DNA sequence: CGGCTTTGACCCGCGC
DNA sequence: GCGCGGGTCAAAGCCG
């Protein structure tokens, strides 16, 4: 089942004063972000206030955790299933730390679609998806021989969100 | 010139 | 078999 902490393949790039998510956008190369900030992913759970929180430090993967579960190891039994099917999928895979985390997705409130996750990606396709005005973009890790792919699209119900799906595990270190 | 994006074509699985 | 939807290929173009 769910554990209280998960690692996401996004990283904080630098320190600064902005509270916005994502922490790094191509349009604003010099954007800096406050490390100590926690990024609430509201709407992910139908909880008020949302209890899932992202945190991280430069060079490390961001961590997603359920703030309603206390650190001292107690696994709270009142955890609820995430409201989104995407997150449901994620939590299971990431929570169990599947060695090759085959596939998982997450949703981020973001104006830009390309989140810098520390890897270099090459775009290899773009498709319109049925019942959605937004295209889906296909990326492959540009490191030779690395099997990882990702897919990026806007949430059709709420275009403020970007859905990123990762597939496969990197067979190398991140590039930055 | 090399690496990347763009874009339409192609392929494949699935339901009718 | 056929059409549709989703995923990928690859030629051409773009850009540093």
UniProtKB/TrEMBL annotation:
Keyword set, alphabetical order: DNA-binding, Nucleus, Transcription, Transcription regulation
InterPro entries the record matches: WRKY_dom, WRKY_dom_sf, WRKY_plant
The WRKY domain, residue ranges: 110-175
One term under GO cellular component: nucleus
Compartments where found: Nucleus
Protein name as annotated: WRKY transcription factor 50
Gene Ontology MF annotations: DNA-binding transcription factor activity; sequence-specific DNA binding
């Amino acid at each position: 089942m769910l554990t209280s902490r998960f690692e996401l393949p996004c990283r904080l790039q630098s320190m600064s004063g902005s509270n916005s998510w994502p922490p790094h956008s191509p349009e604003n190369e010099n954007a800096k972000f406050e490390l100590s900030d926690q990024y609430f992913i509201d709407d992910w759970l139908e909880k008020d206030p949302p209890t899932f929180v992202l945190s991280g430090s430069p060079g490390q993967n961001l961590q997603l955790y359920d703030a309603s579960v206390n650190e001292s190891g107690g696994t709270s039994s009142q955890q609820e299933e995430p409201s989104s099917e995407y997150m449901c999928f994620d939590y299971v895979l990431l929570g169990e730390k599947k060695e090759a985390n085959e596939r998982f997705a997450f949703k981020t409130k973001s104006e830009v679609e390309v989140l810098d996750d520390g890897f270099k990606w090459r775009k290899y396709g773009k498709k319109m998806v049925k019942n959605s005005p937004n295209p889906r973009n296909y990326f492959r890790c540009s490191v030779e021989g690395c099997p990882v792919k990702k897919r990026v699209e806007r949430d059709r119900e709420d275009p403020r969100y970007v859905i990123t799906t990762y597939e496969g595990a990197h067979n190398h270190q991140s590039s930055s």
